[in-house]
Write a sequence for this structure.
């Protein structure tokens, strides 16, 4: 847990911009002036070194890392994404790697193990002393993606019958080892979690008060639960510590707020990437090779393009209509664009409401009611504008076609856009993936059918 | 600051689903069975009551709130969004309102004042005792949207020459009033911030150690700085406390991690709404009337539709070409859709990288390099597929047109999509607003021009 005492110390640093620092270091390394590079690296605050490493190529990254003083190296290493950690491990000397691996917290160690080739991970784990091996094994026991895999097994706990004064003594004894001391889980004789107590309550109480009278019921996570769900709960409830329990409700670890933030950050990167129709990069943008960028995007692009092939087929059905009135084809991008925008607005709003817990799939009927009415109202407004403008610039009949199409399409698009994320959630898919790109494809095809049917009817084709 | 001792106590609750609880309460209130409703409300944990209020209509909301026991009412009220707080205030009895307003923390009070009609706010502020008035005034002094407006002025601080033991005594004396005690700002004789020290470091040290030897340089926020930027820094550095200073570097307040999380949540709601082409709702989805939904969306829809009118004009230029080869019009949605997707992928990735601080506008050249190459590679892949499929299903010439267009368009779209968020950031616009909808419109128009120019050249029209 990062506390103020770990805050970056700045010393005599003048360079504060990571782009600038990376450029200067690259120049020094290119000129093989490693002495000057070492001086510069030493003067940088750790968080800036992290920024620099995240924008360097793999070779520079290893060189810069080797220049770091030992204490800083650990702080910096912990802050890197596991894929970058794994790359660094391969570039460093074995002794240095063993030392780093030993110094990591058990939860960070588990995260790195997931990235390393199996034979490297096994060798490193064997080099640990028994205590550290046991702590790491406790974390590695839980599946990847579970909160058990991300929790810290190093905590201080107390007992309901223990007094506030004795608890304070326990805290002082474990002060160097516990991940945090600001919230203290309370367990019974069977190590089952029975509550949680804040250090503030312990300090405020008379020393003789039993913890039983100070503790509160704890919000918990089960160790096999998804790390994202647990982290979300921790952030929603603004907890410093979320106790993690096993199936028998025994306390096995804690998730501190800083680890919860990190999990949520990764989850959000994934969500925004998916909502934008690509896979998450899992590493900083500038440290991502072009082939990885392409890989993260190409599958989605092809899937969406095959989906869009549907629009070609729809248009083929109406090819004769287009031949009769070519002017109709002029409005195709406008119509499908507006439909897509309306659908995406609704989808984005409902996806966010789902993420915040404001709605659940059980609210489908209420969402339907809201979106039909909102979509219809938007349709009336846009349809009226479309009718007026097209009527003035082209002719009234075409205006009528555009106006009616917008009215119908806005209603359909908002309704579909609002319900799609709920459907995704109900079938346990990621609402963010399922919504925008799919809505656009669906609305494009539907919009074209609606448009040409209305055109045929109004223009009597 | 929410600590475990504030955690929800569950009692004998059986209903855990907010939709279900809201439905039952609505039924009880409809049947005017307020006694049973009160029993039910009393048994619900506060966080569930918040969920229920966020999905109720304005009238039910006031009824349910009035049923809450006094202690719970305050906790629940603090957790509501200011627009809902303001609505409740209008429905409650004056005495109750005065009491609530007095019990709020100064920062929450300031947030509410922004929402209330001026005459109500003035009256409520006048009813406060002098101390609370002074604390609230300190916060209200800073502009809306600044971190000064969201900070807590109630903190415990220490001095470099004070010892760890004396600091612990200060903490104990202020333990009931300070917003948090887990990180303690250090100020000099002029109240200027000179560092910060964790409670853990204080407890670990020999009692005689001066704070000077324990403290670290503090990461700070200036009070007039935007609340979002300050909250982002606090989360990035995983701080429990971010000290807030005035222009003379005097300590004026603290931003605790829970308030930072709340600010970031609101900011994210705003960003996702804008990225989806609508304005943020500022209240939970189910508590939002349809007219507010429409208002949040209609302006963007109209703006984007007028932007899309550009595509109509582009197509008009090529109307003769379409008349000659109507088949060309069949591929218009596919072409512009793929261009839009490619652009949005790049924009989403770079926007996220900006939000995480992985890139800055100064990295424009590197982003350009990445995106041109990624876009070109994607273009080669999609172009080859387009050439093959269209060549087989239609004819080779049309296949060549589609293939070449996809190649050119993917390159253009990825480049524009990648640079647009940087441009937005450079001119201090919100990258999220500026990117997706604008990119789609721009890419649509450009894509059509590219498509028809290539078609004319290849087909010899």
């Amino acid at each position: 847990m990062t506390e103020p005492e770990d805050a970056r110390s700045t010393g005599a640093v003048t360079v504060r911009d990571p782009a600038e620092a990376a450029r200067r270091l690259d120049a020094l390394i290119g000129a093989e002036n490693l002495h000057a590079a070492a001086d510069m690296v030493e003067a940088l605050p750790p968080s800036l070194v992290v920024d620099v490493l995240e924008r360097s190529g793999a070779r520079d990254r290893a060189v810069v890392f080797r220049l770091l003083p030992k204490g800083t190296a650990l702080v910096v290493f912990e802050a890197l994404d596991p894929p970058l950690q794994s790359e660094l491990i391969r570039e460093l000397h074995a002794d240095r790697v063993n030392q780093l691996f030993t110094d990591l917290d058990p939860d960070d160690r588990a995260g790195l193990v997931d990235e390393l080739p199996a034979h490297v991970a096994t060798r490193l784990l064997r080099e640990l002393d028994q205590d550290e091996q046991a702590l790491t094994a406790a974390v590695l026991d839980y599946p990847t993606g579970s909160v058990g895999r991300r929790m810290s097994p190093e905590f201080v706990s107390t007992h309901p019958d223990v007094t506030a004064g004795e608890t304070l003594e326990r805290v002082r004894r474990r002060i160097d080892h516990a991940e945090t001391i600001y919230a203290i889980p309370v367990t019974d004789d069977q190590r089952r979690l029975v509550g949680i107590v804040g250090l503030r309550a312990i300090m405020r109480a008379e020393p003789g008060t039993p913890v039983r009278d100070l503790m509160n019921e704890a919000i918990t996570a089960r160790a096999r639960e998804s790390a994202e769900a647990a982290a979300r709960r921790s952030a929603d409830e603004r907890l410093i510590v979320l106790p993690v329990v096993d199936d028998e409700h025994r306390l096995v670890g804690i998730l501190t707020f800083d680890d919860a933030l990190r999990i949520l950050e990764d989850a959000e990167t994934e969500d925004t990437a998916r909502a934008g129709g690509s896979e998450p990069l899992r590493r900083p943008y500038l440290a991502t090779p072009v082939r990885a960028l392409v890989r993260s995007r190409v599958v989605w692009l092809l899937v969406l393009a095959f989906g869009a092939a549907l629009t070609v087929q729809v248009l083929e059905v109406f090819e004769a209509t287009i031949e009769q009135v070519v002017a109709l084809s002029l409005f195709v991008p406008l119509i499908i664009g507006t439909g897509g925008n309306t659908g995406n607005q609704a989808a984005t709003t409902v996806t966010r409401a789902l993420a915040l817990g404001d709605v659940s799939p059980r609210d489908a009927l209420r969402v339907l009611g809201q979106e039909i009415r909102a979509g219809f109202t938007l349709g009336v407004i846009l349809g009226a504008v479309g009718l007026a403008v097209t009527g003035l610039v082209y002719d009234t009949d075409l205006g009528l076609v555009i106006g009616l199409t917008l009215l119908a399409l806005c209603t359909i698009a908002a309704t579909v856009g609002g319900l799609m994320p709920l459907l995704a959630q109900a079938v346990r898919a990621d609402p963010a993936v399922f919504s925008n790109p799919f809505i656009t494809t669906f609305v494009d095809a539907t919009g074209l059918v609606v448009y040409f049917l209305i055109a045929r009817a109004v223009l009597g084709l």
